[in-house]
Amino acid sequence: MMVRVGRPRRSVAILCIAMEMGGIAWTGQARAQTVPVGANPASSSTAPAAQTRPDAIDPTMLDPSAPLAPLPEIGVAWPDLSTAPGDPSATIAATVDAAAERRYRWRVEGIDDAGDLLRKRFDELSSLHTNDGDPANAAQLDRRAREDAALLTNLLCGAGYYDAQVATRIEPGEVPTVLLQATPGNLYRFAGVTLDGVQKAGDKAAPLTQAFGIKPGDPVDADTIVAGEAALKAAVGEAGFPFAKVGDPQIVVDRAARTATLDLSIAPGTPRRYGRIVTTSDRLFDAEHVQDIARFRPGDPYDSAGLDDLRRALVQTGLVSSVQVKPVPGDTPETVNVAVTLEPAPSHTIAGELGYGTGEGARAAINWTDRNLFPPEGALTLRSVLGTREQLGSVVFRRNNFNGRDRVLTAQFAAAHLLRDAYEAKTLSLSASLERQTNIFFQKTWTWSLGAELLTSDERDVIESTGQPRRRTFFIGALPTSLNYDGSDDLLNPTRGFRLGGRLSPELSLQGAAFGYARTQVDASIYRPLGDRVVLAARTRLGTILGAPRDQIAPSRRFYAGGGASVRGYGFQAIGPRDANNDPIGGRSLAEFSIEARVKAFGNFGIVPFLDAGNIATSPLPRLTGLRFGTGLGVRYYSNFGPIRLDLGTPLNPQKGDSRVAVYVSLGQAF
Length: 671
What we know:
The chain has about 675 residues and is mainly beta. It is about 15% helix and about 45% strand. It has eight helices and 30 strands. Helix 2 (about 115-125) packs antiparallel against helix 4 and helix 5 (about 205-210) packs antiparallel against helix 6 (about 220-240).
């Protein structure tokens, strides 16, 4: 930024002022001229001596190596409070005490109207504040006061108070107080603001001027100018000008009128359209795959926001350690190509997971993944689960951004053993799906999935009426689909909005004879803030199975309720009809309801009182009678990767055999 300080039609000699505000330095010199700036406020002179002749200035004042001039009442020895005024021994005592170190207080007066930001910046840079609480002798205090007086003068000038002066003095006492008394003077304002060349942007000129935001009458504030310049550079790119050039702001200060003028040149160039994507290397992704990730297409009007979005999306793949996305001249004068340079990140990941739930037991999982074994973004994952009631091994192929942004193709082969109170199942499954996913970087409003699944499952349960064990083998084919809407404000810890989702899975089962049925489930949740520290959350889940009687459906494909993600206070899958051995048998319909208050208690901790209800019915339609209620209290630790949840629940109307307390530990909110 360039600053010209002067009065109309004649030079004005002022003392050199240097300040740095937001990385921009302002300087005025003894003669009115435009100069580059880069001084440090701590090493600059203190206050301007307006309207003095150049030949009247002491040359040492412009010499950076010259000693600092004395300030009134600073640099003297500590006063001896034990002597009376006029006592001849006072001078001797004061001289003796000059080297003594004492604790001190300090304060600044006169800057209340300058704003909280100036006070904050002063505190960050102040020598008195940095050394607050440490003893100091008179010489040290003298130096700190001088530095802070110069700093405060510069900060005030940066805020538009060009006539600011700062006086310093010591208020004696048992603990002396250093006072910085600021007199800001008049606030300078812009008399004129010119964006030279903005008219060449055509119909985009008015939006660009509005984006810059500075107009006549505004204070001559460095922060405002820096923010306006940044906003203009962003706006000109978003308006379709990839090669626009924005000059440095030039300011001319009129000390007599206490005003300033601001001139900024801009050369927008010509608006362009997107051409093609050019990659410097195909080690990670070729240009075609990068185009799949980009939200813009060749021929779309250029918008720099599209490049920022592409840069974030490439980083989000997890395969990139650094990325550079920039516009380059296109193949024709009206187009702009996008040059992408990628540096690969390590592609191997090992992840672990621990959990415990009443009814589910302890559970540990470990995954090994090569995230780019089959470029581009073709990942292979080996997964293993070891638990007291679950064991699983699986091989998963996953291709992210499959022919489009955030579309995921997944294929999986898994072998699993599940031991539940309701059944025991040994299952081999082969499945595939194509889905549009959401994530914490780009939370989606709409998501969907289309899938297919083939499985064989050897399952053991009991005959409901007699309690006699039985074993059956099921061959099942399914076409699961889902559609979800997310209107919440956060994926892991929502505080407002709502979510709505539906799932439909037509299935064909072969067990003795072939028969078909359809599983349908609807989930809805809503979040409402009650003040700054409380969020009220509620959830409903309804499900039904149409087309086959309950006993004919494989136990692992029925509906169950109870557990940490269902009705807390009850064991996992413990709610609903039971057999002669008092074990749950599942059902054809499901109804669940939950309400909880998420209260921020202190720091990163919160408490969550909750009330849940639900039941399982053998009829195809959900029933609202015979609900089982559970209540309890949860604790949340809000980490930087999501809330960690610990819930303790108890059943209000338990069935025979239900535990009085259930414990759930997991990552993320219950819903």
